Amino acid sequence: MALAVASRRFTSVLRPQAAAVFVASKYVRPFSTTGKPDSRHMSTTAAGETSQMKDELPKGEIPFISIKDEKAKKIASAEPDVTHFRTHGGHHPLEKQAKILPYHSWLPHPVWGEEATSTVKITHVKPEVFADRAAYFCVQSLRALWDVTTGYGKPGFKEAGWIDRMTFLETVAGVPGMVGAMCRHLQSLRRMERDYGWIHTLLEEAENERMHLMTALVLKQPNAFFRGSVLVAQGVFLTFFSISYLISPKFCHRFVGYLEEEAVKTYTKMLEEMNAGKLPGFDIPAPPVARHYWQLEENATLKDVILAVRADEAHHREVNHTFASMRRNDPNPFPPGY
Q1: What tens digit of pLDDT does each residue of 152-183 get?
Q2: By residue range, what is the domain housing residue 45?
């Protein structure tokens, strides 16, 4: 009789609310892997609790099976501090106390010592085959065009010009690694064969270049024109590099190798001007993002950051020239974080 009364009461409440959602917590029977209620979890007091339920339902509200269950209320209201899934008693990413680490990079990357940053040399790999010569010609042409456009090397090229140049170039420099990793990833899926370890190195390169950009943005607040220029440049370069990688990965890796040769030249000139006192505005502490990423000392300066960036570029130069000289299925000689 009590169940019949409760059923009529539920029906009268649900009619005006056809889309009402029930959230059951302690009164819902768990299901086994067979899809049927698991008898091991059935409550022997279910009938008594059902008879009490009809007196707890507030009029005009969605009839939660257990209106006193605060956790059920929170889940229904979608409050962000509710943990919806838990498989163990340890830390859960949805818990409220979870913290986001500042400036944290999730991919391994080199941390350079003083000797490594101070001994970087300007080197050049001589083009040998047609793909090498084509890559070298493209890089030299782009460099000449960019130097003229930005006024690089002229007497008025000071701190603002350097930061603009660094910021813009790093928005483009992060493209090749990601494109190469994506192409090899999809190729591995499509051909159903191994990648031989190249993907992780290319992803690490893309992330490293992105962190160069994050460092530059501490010193540069891009305006609308700058952002629009980046959008156009990225679209053009992404299209060019993606098609080129599908046609000739060797050309692309040699292209990046030569591009990094020019980057090492640029940062070396920047350091020379800083040492000569021509850029007094750069005599500042290292930004926190850079200090954390490269694990620099607390008293590190912007010069230490540029030294680390140059070491990164020399590293990418080595990696890409090596990849350009390898066959597609050769194992990657560089371990994660190299």
Answers
A1: 988 889 999 999 999 999 999 999 999 999 99
A2: 2-77
